[in-house]
Design brief:
CATH class: Alpha Beta
Largest sheet: 7 strands, parallel
Number of helices: 16
CATH superfamily: NAD(P)-binding Rossmann-like Domain
CATH topology: Rossmann fold
Structural class: alpha/beta
Radius of gyration: 23 Å
Strand order of the largest sheet: 3-2-1-4-5-6-7
Helix content: 40-55%
Number of domains: 1
């Protein structure tokens, strides 16, 4: 009996240590400077505002490309939210931006404690065959190389402060849907870089987290409408005649359903703020949904045979079923409940430290009994 107790105690101790390694405690900052790229609209703008409001001691530099966007940021009226011209496709712009932030930090006796690599562009549904090379290069220039430029320029400051790097990826960093392969490729690249970066920086006390949103309701939907499947069909583009199975009426319906079921942008705000401020930031935050399917479920596609995944991605009636269910829920449930359902924020934001504490307590109790 006594040997069994000791064996169980050893197992729990080992499990507790493994959890500790999986969820290393990160240094928390009560004040400091945070750089958010791509803050003109959408997720970046909402995140910059949310962070500034969350903690008045955080000074948020919101990267924008136009003077008009900078003025729009100023009009919000938050003293700790400062617009900054930043073009992540330009090495000179990134270098100038980081130097200005560093000088400001020194003048205020503050540290640069985090960057949020949000700057990104998307493109309407396009097959690989008919994807313009210039458009593909633009996607990589912003979505991948832009994040790389800002990260490299900021790392000396983040190493000094033991800060944090937040990468805004996409759930398509986990899988590649038809007509979205090139965009998904940029997110796969971003995720691969982030995974390596996390391991490299972990011993130096710098945390790296990835946010993988599904469909989030931002202006990106309206901006991509001219490049939609419906537009391609109406304009009778060459891809439609070569790949008719990808431009059906059901595909048009699904494209519209994606926007209807898109989650509120607050889901990404919550994930970003947790990654910035928690003692135990997660490595990945999967939020929102894709055509009504919770974003975190797409992770499990990697466990299935490729051919089965292909069948799943080509099964076009699932969104119609999800939309029907959504309409029923919308009719009978409160609006706030609907928001939670679409957000799918079943994330263990506060679970990691509790798990470690519980296991340690159990281990202590068992040790006492054994004595």
């Amino acid at each position: 009996m006594k040997n069994s107790v000791y064996s169980l105690s050893a197992f729990i101790c080992l499990l507790s240590y493994l959890l500790y390694l999986c969820y290393p405690e990160a240094q928390c900052h009560k004040n400091g400077i945070i750089i958010v790229s791509g803050a003109s609209t959408g997720i970046g703008r909402h995140a910059a505002v949310a962070i500034a409001r969350y903690n008045k001691e955080f000074i948020v530099f919101a990267g924008v490309r136009k003077d008009s966007d900078a003025e729009s940021i100023r009009s919000i009226g938050l003293k700790n939210l400062r617009p900054m011209l930043l073009d992540v496709t330009s090495a000179e712009s990134v270098s100038t931006c980081v130097k200005k932030v560093e000088e400001f930090a020194k003048s205020k006796n503050l540290k640069v404690i985090a960057i949020v690599n949000n700057a990104g562009v998307a493109q309407g549904p396009t097959t690989i065959e008919f994807h313009q090379m210039s458009d593909a290069e633009r996607l990589f220039s912003v979505n991948f190389f832009g994040a790389l430029r800002l990260t490299q320029a900021s790392l000396p400051l983040l190493r000094s402060s033991k800060g944090r790097v937040i990468m805004i990826s996409s759930i398509t960093g986990e899988f590649s849907p038809p007509l979205g392969g090139m965009y998904a490729a940029t997110k796969h690249a971003l995720e691969a870089m982030s995974d390596s970066l996390r391991v490299e920086l972990n011993p130096l006390g710098v945390s790296v987290s990835i946010v993988q949103p599904g469909a989030v309701l931002t202006p990106i939907f309206s901006s991509l409408r001219p490049e939609s499947i419906e537009s391609a069909v109406m304009e009778n583009k060459q891809a439609v005649s070569v790949y008719p199975h990808l431009f059906t009426q059901q595909d048009i319906t699904n494209e519209k359903t994606l926007e209807v079921l898109a989650a509120h942008v607050s889901v990404t705000n919550d994930a970003i703020i947790h990654a910035l401020t928690s003692s135990y930031p997660l490595t990945r935050y999967r939020v929102a949904n894709m055509l009504g399917v919770p974003a975190f479920l797409f992770v499990y596609l990697s466990l299935l045979p490729d051919r089965l995944v292909d069948i799943f991605l080509s099964f076009k009636t699932v969104p119609s079923i999800m939309l029907f269910v959504f309409r029923v829920l919308q009719r009978y449930l409160p609006e706030r409940v609907i928001d939670v359902v679409l957000s799918f924020q079943a994330l263990p934001f506060l679970l990691a430290p509790q798990i470690t504490w519980i296991i340690s307590s159990v281990f202590t109790a068992i040790s006492s009994i054994a004595k």
